[in-house]
Amino acid sequence: MEDRDDRADTMGDHDLTPEEKMAFQRLQREAGPSRILEERVAKALREEGILGHGKALDSGTRRVAGGGRWYRPWMAVASMAASLVLFASGVVLGQWMGSESTTQAFIQVREQDAAQLALSIQEAGSAYVSALAALSELRIAGLGAEGVGPGASQAGIDLRQGREIALGALYGAANELARMSPGDADVLRVLQILEERRGREEGWGGDDRNVVWF
Amino acid sequence: MNSAEADSGPPSRQMTEQLSDRELADLVIHQGDEDAFRSLYRRHTPAVYQFVLRLVGGNVQEAEDVIQETWMRAARGLEGFRWKSALRSWLTGIALNRVRETARKKKRSLVEVEGEWEIPAAAIDPGQRIDLDRALELLPPGFRTVLVLHDVEGFTHQEIGGQLGITDGTSKSQLHSARKAMRRLLSAGLEMA
Predict the structure, then answer these.
(1) Does A18 touch chain B (CB under 8 A)?
(2) Of A51, A100, A197, B29, which sits with the fewest C-beta atoms within 10 Å of its C-beta?
(3) Which residue of A4, A10, A37 is the best one to mutate when testing the B interface, meaning the one whose CB has the most B CBs within 10 A?
């Protein structure tokens, strides 16, 4: 674009006055759209297959299948081990910190606006699914064969507890969704299925079951 | 290609932020690298969004839809971009085309103003001077577009003509009317007091 002053487009008394030029120059040059827009765009591009090669979740699909240059077998084992350690320490830490940290998290969540909340849900949802995928890989790899009692491996116990936590979170989310959209028959159906399951599994694990349904 | 493609692994978010537009675009094209795309998005969206928001008269929903479609088209066409202009100019051009397409669908002209335009009195607070951004929002699209392109963004009449499919003369004449309307709006509140 040329300098405006170089243009031969004078309109006599309709030229901008210096004050008007100044006012135009002072106009804001940038503005932020809602943060959820970035997620919308990224999601749409992932769905089109334009993005996603470099993301952790896709490493198990495209990169492995295509022999991508960043994939190394030891990385999968290391990731699984790291996931396990993180998961187990998270559970222990969560139990230690108890209600105080939960209260703080609640306060933080309630201070967010709708866009922040939508983004938080997306991030938390991605983290939830990623962690479950890692847990599932562990199970498939046989590293965490499930079991109860003295003979069970620590990995197996963690795996079982992880599954229980995941179900609890799913139930909690379905409950909130149903509260938000009481007329949504699909959501209510999901909630009903989870409630039936919850009822059936009330005795799940007996005394060694230390995770509370949300 | 560049150092970002080193064999040791994908570039970190912090690293992608230091790369040029072209390096980031290469990562998006060849690796589908989401962090690289997000860096491009965060680098250019605020300016393009502000431009679009002004063109659509402050309609946030419409502006966001235009931005989404702009990035979708840009990402699909990134491989064909020849880098003869800055990426932001290219994005701005795509966004302007999207605004035109949206206006066409809504049968809203970005060039013509039908009949004698009158100040929307209900939108003016008597005794209050309105600011320039508010005045731009209140102008009909036929005035607003040329004013934003010429006086805010610095397009020449030739460029405006090329983008909107009109002659240089039409662009000049429209700018003349648009500035007149803008001045009426800027003093409207005080006159109504």
Answers:
(1) no
(2) A100
(3) A37
CB B160 within 8 A of CB B172: no
pLDDT band (50, 70, 90) for residue A116: low
As a dihedral over the C-alpha atoms of residue B57, residue A2, residue B182, residue B114, rounded to 10 degrees, the angle is -70
- Closest Cα in chain B to A75: B9
Residue B3 in any domain: the answer is: no
Beta carbons of B42 and A33 less than 8 angstroms apart:
no
Residue B79 domain boundaries: 10-108
Q: Are residues B118 and B136 in the same domain?
A: yes
Structural domain count, chain B: 2
Query: Is B34 inside any structural domain?
Result: yes
Q: Considering the entire predicted model, what is its pTM?
A: 0.58
Q: What is the pLDDT of residues A120-170, one digit of tens each?
A: 777 677 677 767 777 676 666 665 555 445 556 667 777 777 777 777 777
- Residue B160, in any domain of the structure: yes
Same-domain status, B104 and B16 = yes
What is the ipTM metric for this complex? Answer: 0.86
pLDDT 10s digits, B112-135? 777 778 888 777 777 777 889 999
Could you tell me how many CB contacts below 8 A there are between chain A and chain B?
111
Backbone dihedral angles phi then psi of residue B9, each to the nearest 5 degrees: 150, 175
pLDDT at A88: 62
In a domain, B1, yes or no: no
CATH number for the domain that contains residue B144: 1.10.10.10
